[in-house]
Amino acid sequence: MAFQCFWVWLFLLCGFWQVAFCDQDGFLSLSCGGTASFIDSSNISWVSDSTYVTTGNTTTVDYTEGSSSSHVPVRFFPDSQGRNCYRLPVKNVSSSVLIRSQFVYKNYDGLGRPPAFSVSLGTAITSTINLTTSDPWTEESVWPVDTDTLPFCLHTIPDGGIPVISSLEVRPLPQGAYKSGMGDFPNKSLRKCYRINCGYSNGSLRYPVDPYDRIWDADESFSPSRLSTGFNIQLSFNQSSIRESPPIAVLQTARVLARSDVLTYNLPLDNLGDYHIVLFFAGILPVSPSFDVIINGNLVQTNLTVKNLEAIALFFTRKGIKSLNITFKNISFYPLVNAIEVYEIVDIPLEVSSTTVSALQVIEQSTGLDLGWKDDPCSPTPWNHIGCEGSEVTSLELSDINLRSISPTFGDLLDLKTLDLHNTSLTGQIQNLISLQQLEKLNLSFNRLTSFGSDLEKLVSLQILDLQNNSLQGIVPDSLGELKDLHLLNLENNKLQGTLPQSLNRESLEVRTSGNLCLSFTMSTCNDASSNPSIETPQVTILSKKKNNGHNPRATIIGAVGGALVALLLISLSVFMFMRRKRSEVTYTERARMEMRNYNAAKVFSYKEIKAATNNFKEVIGRGSFGSVYLGKLPDGKLVAVKVRFDRTQLGADSFINEVHLLSQIRHQNLVCLEGFCHEAKQQILVYEYLPGGSLADNLYGLNSRKITLSWVRRLKIALDAAKGLDYLHNGSDPRIIHRDVKCSNILLDMEMNAKVCDFGLSKQVTQADCNSCDHCCQGHCWLS
Ligand SMILES: *[C@@H]1O[C@H](CO)[C@@H](O)[C@H](O)[C@H]1NC(C)=O
Ligand SMILES: *[C@@H]1O[C@H](CO)[C@@H](O)[C@H](O)[C@H]1NC(C)=O
Ligand SMILES: *[C@@H]1O[C@H](CO)[C@@H](O)[C@H](O)[C@H]1NC(C)=O
Ligand SMILES: *[C@@H]1O[C@H](CO)[C@@H](O)[C@H](O)[C@H]1NC(C)=O
Ligand SMILES: *[C@@H]1O[C@H](CO)[C@@H](O)[C@H](O)[C@H]1NC(C)=O
Ligand SMILES: *[C@@H]1O[C@H](CO)[C@@H](O)[C@H](O)[C@H]1NC(C)=O
Ligand SMILES: *[C@@H]1O[C@H](CO)[C@@H](O)[C@H](O)[C@H]1NC(C)=O
Ligand SMILES: *[C@@H]1O[C@H](CO)[C@@H](O)[C@H](O)[C@H]1NC(C)=O
Ligand SMILES: *[C@@H]1O[C@H](CO)[C@@H](O)[C@H](O)[C@H]1NC(C)=O
Ligand SMILES: *[C@@H]1O[C@H](CO)[C@@H](O)[C@H](O)[C@H]1NC(C)=O
Ligand SMILES: *[C@@H]1O[C@H](CO)[C@@H](O)[C@H](O)[C@H]1NC(C)=O
Ligand SMILES: *[C@@H]1O[C@H](CO)[C@@H](O)[C@H](O)[C@H]1NC(C)=O
């Protein structure tokens, strides 16, 4: 009894001694839902929380605990939309802060359903509060401060009920406290599990005993496997060696192992996780005890010696544990421990980059709405309309609002993978998206956009592009074909027309076109003839020479070379085929196709090879009636012209290969040589030798800025070359071929200005009808052009 009295005296003395040396600098104590300021029994000033929070309703709850009855204000958050946040000022604080919150339900609403909800600090969810388990519930976290304002938020959880809070305290901690031994876990938050004042059994100690107002719980409620008497002795210690500065009153009591050789604290933990353990020892005994420290069966410290009047602290982290026992094992004299702190290590998610945050704020302003976008966009929970991966904002969905245009600010959201701006009154052209190189899904449907703009083709990651129900006009740009990952392109219900670029005609891409004026890959599927710009003539007729038929076919080239303009002459270079012989339609079979594979003259390319050679169809060097021509480079360095065909009626697979077979046999110095072809899925691609001199048309009319003056001699040579090429087609080749589209854009020049005729050969299949009609026209000496 005398001993206890002594202790009480010591405690009071110590307490007053402490008060003399500290004040409440930096303390913030909020009475949640309270209206009046007051000073409590510990001389701590409390204020209403209303200046730090904007949401929630308030009420008071009366309850009795033991002999005392309390009248406690609470704030609850019936509107579960978004985050319910306090913004705590920590501006003046240069160290970590302790944030302590208390939650009381006590049936304030008369429903008898204690809620469960989660709580976050900054970007980290720190804990889940379950008031069924404990009411009231107290949470404490050590937070490393690096901002002016620390958001503290309550979040509803499914079926959890209405979050409720009764008090919130901010306490600056000593500089550098709780960082020792955290090497593996820099900049983490610590959630308090235990803070035990070992050997002390008369309630909790806090301010003013602890100037930092930590709550040190009495030892009695823990269950060491072997109980021993607590010691408390009037001594003072030089604590400045310990950054955590435990109060002297706490160090003056210890649990000391007197008779047995093992002292163990068993400390159950809430979660499987990483934990930080701090052990305080003080030399309150006249002897210097030495002992081993064992945590969860692992020897963490051998022969720890605590010298008289010396205070020491040990720090440990333990990864992936879900229970904790700490054992002190006697080596000599009386092992002891003065205080134990155990914290769960809580990860603090990275904050979203400030560029992204300010961009989103600008966007929020431009909507003219309060979207409730505050604090970090991604953590602890993403804002409404936003999706995140880690600390990157990867999706933004704003719809049914009045945005009018895609402002340049959207271009700052560099990590976006999904952007959905459907029904946001967008007008004009699609713009300001070029920097969104991660963008995979873009939904701009249900707007009033009129033009594709030039940004889309640069969005190399795009997979889904939804432009339905806009006012897009004109033709679909060929450049969209450069989006090689695109697999859905929705152009429905626009005002588009014309043929779709062949580059979009691939197996992996679904193009939706209905509801436009006239839009398809093949003009023949267009019913609206008026929107069909031109009906093209078939370009070739392939006739097989009937062998051994005794008389030579009569074929004449009627050409004229001369006059003022070679171009004119060439255009009017007329080709007559006069044939009276019986012709037979060329028919080939699967067998021919197999032969083709073995045929050396023309190489069979895979679509992949073509894509590689053309650098994914990058450079267009010409646009013919049958499709675009791209510059390509074969692995051996040879330049080629890659012609991607599309036609009103594509050739059947057999016919295509058959004709390629024929063409590949035609070799003449004045005919452009077919190097190879590709026939995969719907693709029909021809690979020709590349002629760097451009076409005669380019040279005459200065297209492609190639204009050079052609001398008369040169013009004559070109005319002769072209005539020789045509002559070979008509008379030399087997089968004989009628060009039927001789024009100066179909005469190409090489480096030395030798001319070669191109674009002969493939066309729609030669049908009997064609032959018949050709019979007539040939007999009538008609022009073929
Ligand atoms: C209470 O705190 C104030 C300053 O916050 C101080 O002036 C006063 O002396 C304290 N009172 C007691 C009884 O500690
Ligand atoms: C919360 O307060 C609002 C007005 O501030 C009121 O309309 C609402 O009914 C209150 N909710 C509850 C559950 O008391
Ligand atoms: C810091 O706190 C002191 C009082 O403790 C106050 O006078 C000062 O204005 C604060 N500074 C800032 C930047 O809030
Ligand atoms: C809260 O705790 C009670 C009892 O421990 C349990 O039945 C209930 O499922 C818990 N609620 C949540 C949301 O975890
Ligand atoms: C920890 O936080 C400080 C201040 O915010 C920062 O300077 C430091 O780089 C961070 N350390 C790590 C490892 O993240
Ligand atoms: C416990 O502390 C209270 C004051 O906080 C004191 O009145 C009481 O006598 C103490 N009890 C013992 C057993 O020391
Ligand atoms: C406390 O210890 C520190 C070094 O750890 C020393 O600098 C300081 O003088 C000591 N203070 C007292 C009062 O002994
Ligand atoms: C302490 O924990 C270890 C490992 O978790 C276990 O093997 C040992 O039995 C525990 N000791 C006691 C006394 O609970
Ligand atoms: C423990 O350490 C003390 C001094 O620190 C030493 O005198 C003693 O021999 C050591 N005991 C053992 C068992 O290592
Ligand atoms: C343990 O402590 C006692 C004193 O309480 C001492 O006699 C004994 O030698 C110590 N060592 C071991 C290993 O028990
Ligand atoms: C577009 O948003 C408006 C509200 O801004 C809404 O009335 C309309 O129904 C929406 N239209 C579509 C197609 O979603
Ligand atoms: C784009 O948004 C519209 C309107 O909500 C929707 O109908 C359509 O399915 C979306 N497109 C894609 C590809 O998700």
From TrEMBL:
<feature type="signal peptide">
    <location>
        <begin position="1"/>
        <end position="22"/>
    </location>
</feature>
<dbReference type="Pfam" id="PF13855">
    <property type="entry name" value="LRR_8"/>
</dbReference>
<keyword id="KW-0677">Repeat</keyword>
<keyword id="KW-0418">Kinase</keyword>
<keyword id="KW-0472">Membrane</keyword>
<keyword id="KW-0808">Transferase</keyword>
<feature type="binding site">
    <location>
        <position position="643"/>
    </location>
    <ligand>
        <name>ATP</name>
    </ligand>
</feature>
<dbReference type="Pfam" id="PF12819">
    <property type="entry name" value="Malectin_like"/>
</dbReference>
<dbReference type="GO" id="GO:0005524">
    <property type="term" value="F:ATP binding"/>
</dbReference>
<dbReference type="GO" id="GO:0004674">
    <property type="term" value="F:protein serine/threonine kinase activity"/>
</dbReference>
<dbReference type="InterPro" id="IPR001245">
    <property type="entry name" value="Ser-Thr/Tyr_kinase_cat_dom"/>
</dbReference>
<dbReference type="GO" id="GO:0016020">
    <property type="term" value="C:membrane"/>
</dbReference>
<keyword id="KW-0812">Transmembrane</keyword>
<dbReference type="InterPro" id="IPR001611">
    <property type="entry name" value="Leu-rich_rpt"/>
</dbReference>
<keyword id="KW-1133">Transmembrane helix</keyword>
<dbReference type="InterPro" id="IPR032675">
    <property type="entry name" value="LRR_dom_sf"/>
</dbReference>
<keyword id="KW-0067">ATP-binding</keyword>
<keyword id="KW-0433">Leucine-rich repeat</keyword>
<dbReference type="InterPro" id="IPR024788">
    <property type="entry name" value="Malectin-like_Carb-bd_dom"/>
</dbReference>
<dbReference type="Pfam" id="PF07714">
    <property type="entry name" value="PK_Tyr_Ser-Thr"/>
</dbReference>
<dbReference type="InterPro" id="IPR003591">
    <property type="entry name" value="Leu-rich_rpt_typical-subtyp"/>
</dbReference>
<keyword id="KW-0732">Signal</keyword>
<dbReference type="InterPro" id="IPR008271">
    <property type="entry name" value="Ser/Thr_kinase_AS"/>
</dbReference>
<keyword id="KW-0723">Serine/threonine-protein kinase</keyword>
<dbReference type="InterPro" id="IPR017441">
    <property type="entry name" value="Protein_kinase_ATP_BS"/>
</dbReference>
<keyword id="KW-0547">Nucleotide-binding</keyword>
<dbReference type="InterPro" id="IPR000719">
    <property type="entry name" value="Prot_kinase_dom"/>
</dbReference>
<feature type="domain" description="Protein kinase">
    <location>
        <begin position="615"/>
        <end position="785"/>
    </location>
</feature>
<feature type="transmembrane region" description="Helical">
    <location>
        <begin position="555"/>
        <end position="578"/>
    </location>
</feature>
<protein>
    <recommendedName>
        <fullName>non-specific serine/threonine protein kinase</fullName>
        <ecNumber>2.7.11.1</ecNumber>
    </recommendedName>
</protein>
<dbReference type="InterPro" id="IPR011009">
    <property type="entry name" value="Kinase-like_dom_sf"/>
</dbReference>
